[in-house]
Design brief:
- By secondary structure, this protein is α/β, with parallel strands linked by helices.
- It has 18 helices and 17 strands.
- The strands form six sheets. The chain has a five-stranded mixed sheet with strand order 2-1-3-15-6, with helices on both faces.
- Strand 10 and strand 11 form a beta hairpin.
- It is globular, with a radius of gyration of 21 Å.
- The protein starts with a helix and ends with a strand.
- 51% of the residues are buried.
């Protein structure tokens, strides 16, 4: 959508090439024909993923196709162990043909040589039907590494019934969000407006992205790392204040404690992304009609968003069935049947990267849980406001591991959010230096 987004991402990709980040990456030239399983049967693919509705999409594909059949294995989400499982399988030479990878982690898998370039199968014409930002996030070094599935603009989910009961206005700015947090605690000393997730740096990173931060930038032959910019400093201080003042809960994301607080009404909101609508609906069916969705608060009240996650489908380096794997990935991402199968499962609220399929997703998602609210219209607006100046670096896993370690130890008199951000910065610089790359910051 934005020229500045395009310029930033392409610049990073070009620099990644100059820095030889991608020199270890596999290509598609060594593939044997996808008909290797024949002539006695269809091509059989293996696919690992975790997103809601995936098994329903696989079942629908297998029921409607005779030339390709897919064996699906559900694995933990990426940050909960799924990425480690994929990496270990690639190293052992027994990886599946196709895997789910979120945008932030794609550069790391590419730089480690775990994936195949799929540009000969997922063509320019195919990419033209997708959200440009998603396409550019899957294009590194001028090569195509994954089929985008969804974008993930941020949103604020809240208990409308309790906001009404406590006479709390839905906040449109972060200053108003803090005021609302104080009102919630005053109305119910056990309740909080939302939760800080000590196990999930990606939510914090999305907040920094929304505020205008740009942690990773490649110029010429150098990676520039900057986590001390004014936007990051502002977000860090703001959330440190909420934590220090006890205005938010501090529980692991999707943990029994977090879920329990939603069920008993002591957590009134969730700062998530478009995919979170399906998560809440599947987790809290007894609260149907009590929830609503609002744009994420911003610093000045104008629409602004980062991206929290968002997923792609990538072919592993040793797969001999690239054409079939890409065909299946495209079916899931770019066909009405694929999107409908996933979302009509009732657990997914994916916001398709294929822009023409947004109406299909809206129709397939039963919005009764949100009182019939047109949540996809909100996602559209939020998606249009995604800050265009963010790119992911090639060591996101290292960054997040270091941040997460300090997040888990934040306490009065102990480590702070600023310490966590610094730890992420230092670990990233050390890792890129270890790889022989030039780094500034």
């Amino acid at each position: 959508m934005s020229l500045s987004w395009s310029r930033t991402t392409r610049l990073a990709a070009g620099a990644a090439t100059a820095l030889a980040v991608l020199t270890a990456c596999g290509g598609g030239g060594a593939d044997t024909p996808d008909t290797a399983d024949r002539p006695n049967g269809p091509v059989t693919l293996t696919f690992w993923g975790w997103a809601k509705g995936t098994k329903d999409a696989v079942a629908a594909f297998n029921a409607s196709h005779t030339d390709i059949q897919v064996t699906f294995e559900e694995i933990p989400s990426g940050t909960a162990g799924g990425y480690a499982k994929i990496s270990n399988a690639v190293k052992a030479g027994n990886a599946p043909d196709l895997v789910s990878i979120e945008y932030p982690s794609l550069p790391e898998f590419v730089s480690s040589g775990a994936l195949q370039d799929i540009g000969d199968e997922f063509t320019e014409a195919d990419r033209a039907a997708m959200l440009p930002q998603s396409v550019e996030l899957t294009t590194l070094g001028g090569r195509t590494w994954a089929v985008p599935f969804d974008a993930a603009p941020q949103a604020f989910y809240y208990r409308k019934d309790l906001f009404d009961r406590y006479k709390i206005a839905v906040p449109t700015t972060w200053d108003a969000f803090r005021e609302a947090a104080e009102q919630v605690r005053k109305a119910d000393p056990e309740a909080r407006i939302a939760t800080f997730f000590p196990d999930d740096p990606t939510t914090f990173e999305a907040m920094a992205w929304q505020a205008g931060a740009q942690w990773f930038k490649a110029e010429n032959d150098t990676w520039k790392i900057d986590t001390t910019d004014p936007a990051t400093t502002r977000v860090t201080a703001y959330w440190q204040g909420l934590v220090d003042d006890g205005l938010v809960h501090k529980n692991a994301s999707f943990s029994p404690e977090w879920t329990g607080s939603l069920k008993n009404g002591t957590t009134l909101g969730y700062l998530g992304a478009s995919w979170g609508a399906g998560v809440l609906k599947g987790t809290l069916p007894e609260q149907s009609g009590k929830w609503a969705v609002a744009p994420l608060p911003s610093w000045d009240g104008r629409p602004a968003s980062g991206m929290l996650g968002g997923s792609t489908f990538a072919v592993t380096k040793d797969s001999k069935r690239k054409a079939a794997a890409v065909a299946f990935a495209e079916w899931m991402s770019t066909t009405e049947e694929g999107v409908t199968a996933r979302i009509s499962s009732g657990t997914s609220s994916a916001f398709p990267a294929a822009t023409a399929l947004r109406p299909v997703a809206r129709k397939a998602f039963d919005a009764g849980f949100y009182g019939g609210q047109d949540i996809y219209a909100l996602f559209e607006a939020s998606g249009a406001s995604i800050n265009p100046h963010w790119a992911w670096g090639p060591a996101t896993g290292t960054t997040n591991t270091a941040i997460k370690d300090v997040f888990g130890r934040i306490a009065p008199g102990g480590p702070t959010l600023a310490d966590a951000v610094k730890a992420g910065h230092d670990a990233t610089v050390a890792e890129l230096t270890r790889r022989g790359l030039k780094v500034e910051g």
